[in-house]
Specification:
Elements (H helix, E strand, L loop, with lengths): L7 H14 L6 H4 L11 H20 L3 H14 L3 E2 L11 E6 L3 E6 L9 E7 L4 E12 L2 E9 L12 E8 L5 E6 L26 H4 L8 E3 L10 H13 L9 E7 L4 E3 L5 E4 L2 H14 L8 E7 L16 H14 L5 H9 L2 E5 L2 E2 L21 E4 L9 H13 L4 E4 L12 H5 L4 E6 L1 E2 L7 E4 H16 L3
Parallel strand pairs: 1-2, 4-13, 4-14, 14-18, 15-19, 16-17
Antiparallel strand pairs: 2-3, 3-13, 5-6, 5-10, 6-9, 7-8, 7-10, 11-12, 12-20, 16-18
Helix pairs in contact: 3-12, 7-12, 8-9
């Protein structure tokens, strides 16, 4: 097993604080004035936090888009005893199954001891992240460079995507039905792509511009080639087309039916002298998806059927037949009920299952940033290292109080540190997939963990929060009435 380095600064912090705190450790929510979760860790806990973080970093390095997440999740599911759901699957208690929807969403399930009509325990999250997508006709030439025209997916600050090494990931679907997978830029010997910025020597006239004017959406075009061809009148574009034909057997027209994304090429890295933080692309929201996937793999015989439900397109409003607004979730539950009940199945049984279901919608959210703490009203703001947070939005968007109380009891009974999060009124906000399920009469609560630099190319998480969220998911799946 790989040895995990426990930083000396953190080890010293642990030695100084453990004797004073561990014996009387309480959940963050018990006192409403708790300390950092790091202070309550035993030596064994600390080892587990760092080991879990190493495995998390390896996964999200490979799983950078919804397509690559699903591919990695299938491999994980099969390695951990899950079989693909089919029309003949025997839904006995303890059966582990997975279901894929159009290569862009996936559900992992463990069948429970109770009838499916008694409801499910579901953790849902999204697996898309802010990025740049290629337009349908992306390739063009300017100033003797070949470039790609792009569009943006999700909320991002345009200037943060310049002068940044980018990888190109996705698939090209050809008219003959073949699929070509593309992954360029993640391996150290791959080329990368980059959107060049102006040098300070020549851009002084732009110093008075606002950030929104400085870099606009149509400026986000990366260079993809530079060398002119000898045999094609010096055309750089023709050289790129020759390369695509030789390397991938695709044409310029094939790019119309492609899903290709540009994402940061850098690997996840530890951050800080103490290595307590992780800087990585795509932690919104593949952090949540990874921890619930890991948790459900450890469940063998739950009381209620458990599900880890991962969807696409949350960053653009839960759209399309792979987003949370699609009927895929209700279709999946109805098929499971039909497999259990056969000819006795009726629509009201599905509605009963919805009504009896508990659903945790997990999505990360901004934490207090030391560069600008005033962006929060700090009494209701989440802090990195203080555990999972319950999102209390107000204005009719909270879980009902009895489900909040149930959740508090679940976390406290399992010694899981937690806090609350409410945005500064009138000046901030965000959405999750939760609302798409609460409207189906499902009991839904929004969870999160705080990040710094959310929706930027490299968000920052606390390792102890990731582990706390994993323990919360495990407690939820394991719950017995």
């Amino acid at each position: 097993m790989k040895m995990i380095y426990i930083p000396i600064m953190l080890a010293l912090l642990h030695v100084l604080s453990f004797s004073a705190t561990a014996q009387n450790s309480t959940s963050c929510g018990d006192t409403l004035d708790c300390g950092s979760s790091w202070l309550t860790l035993s030596t064994g806990d600390l080892d587990e936090v760092f080991q879990f973080a190493e495995e998390y970093k390896l996964f999200i390095h490979r799983a950078r888009t919804e397509l690559s997440f699903v591919a990695e999740a299938i491999a994980f599911a099969q390695l951990n005893g899950f079989d693909e759901l089919t029309a003949t699957t025997d839904l006995r208690p303890g059966t582990k199954i997975y279901e894929v929807n159009r290569d862009r969403t996936i559900s992992l399930m463990v069948i429970g001891q109770e009838s499916l009509q008694n409801g499910f325990h579901v953790i849902g999250s999204h697996i898309d992240s802010p990025r740049l997508d290629l337009k349908g006709r992306p390739l063009y030439e300017d100033a003797e460079f070949a470039l790609f025209q792009t569009n943006y997916h999700g909320g991002l600050k345009y200037h943060q995507w310049t002068n940044l090494p980018l990888a190109l990931l996705g698939r090209v679907d050809k008219k003959d039905g073949t699929v070509v997978d593309i992954s360029i830029g993640l391996d150290s010997d791959d080329p990368i792509f980059l959107i060049p910025e102006l040098s300070p020597h020549v851009d002084r006239s732009r110093n008075s511009q606002t950030l929104g004017e400085f870099i606009e959406p149509e400026d986000l075009d990366p260079i993809v080639g530079h060398m002119p061809g000898i045999d094609n009148n010096g055309s750089v574009i023709d050289q790129i087309l020759i390369y695509l034909a030789n390397e991938y057997d695709i044409t310029r027209a094939d790019l119309v039916s492609a899903e290709l994304a540009l994402v940061p090429a850098g690997a996840p890295r530890d951050m800080g002298f103490d290595r307590g933080l992780i800087s990585a692309y795509g932690q919104d929201d593949r952090l949540a998806s990874y921890v619930s996937m890991r948790a459900i793999a450890e469940i063998d015989s739950p009381q209620k059927t458990t599900m880890a439900f991962f969807v696409d397109n949350e960053e653009v409003g839960n759209r399309n037949n792979t987003g949370a607004r699609s009927e895929h979730f209700s279709d999946l539950l109805s098929r499971l009920l039909y497999a259990e009940l056969g000819s006795e199945y009726r629509e009201p049984m599905l509605r009963r299952a919805f009504r009896n279901t508990r659903f945790i919608s997990i999505d990360v959210n901004p934490g207090i940033n030391p560069m600008n703490p005033g962006a929060w009203e700090t009494g209701n703001a989440p802090r990195l290292g203080y555990g999972v947070n319950l999102k209390l939005y107000g204005q009719g968007n909270n879980a009902n109080s009895e489900f909040v109380a149930w959740t508090r009891a679940l976390l406290d009974n399992n010694d899981i540190p937690w806090q609350t999060a409410t945005y500064r009124v009138g000046s901030a906000g965000g959405g999750t997939i939760g609302g798409e399920f609460s409207r189906q009469n499902i009991e839904v609560i929004d969870f999160g963990v705080p990040l710094l630099s959310i929706h930027t190319p490299f968000a920052v998480s606390s390792k102890v929060d990731i582990y706390s969220l994993y323990k919360a998911a495990l407690a939820f799946y394991s719950f017995q009435e």
